[in-house]
């Protein structure tokens, strides 16, 4: 399953919720009769969208069977997921975040950096959170740095600028520099 958003909070008193979408395709993903899944009490629960409207590009959704503010509030904070096979195909050179998690990261010189634990940020400024011998390292997800991304082989090859791995390594004491 792949995360496509999170229920932020109830909206109004008729069971609607506001969604923090985590997809580049919110209008396709959040549409009437669309199916989403949440984990509740150890069970996978299917939610069907009965109605949706967008306010400032955020979906406001009514789920079938969720009719009151109390029922909507009980959903707040839950992550919305869909089966991976229902994701839209992406153009060459683009990847879903979940496909990068678990990839081994190494430098172009063959130095092992670690394994991608998550991808943070927005599509315009994402970074890999890599756990390795240096601890947690943040690596910008940029073409100039991430030279090879091969999710099928579970491998990412980076060519980091000098000092990037030390600068972004958690627990390393580096004096801050001022932007000029």
Radius of gyration: 20 Å
Total number of domains: 2
Provide the helix percentage.
under 10%
In sequence order, what are the helices and strands, one letter per element? Answer: EEHEEEHEHEEEEEEH
CATH topology of the largest domain: Elongation Factor Tu (Ef-tu), domain 3
Outline type? elongated
The CATH superfamily of the largest domain bears the name RimM
State the CATH architecture of the largest domain.
Beta Barrel
Instruction: Determine and state the CATH class of the largest domain.
Output: Mainly Beta
Query: What can be said about the biggest beta sheet?
Result: 6 strands, antiparallel
What are the main properties of this structure?
mainly beta, Elongation Factor Tu (Ef-tu), domain 3, SH3 type barrels, 4 helices, six-stranded antiparallel beta sheet, 180 residues, 2 domains, disordered C terminus, six-stranded mixed beta sheet, 12 strands, 9% helix
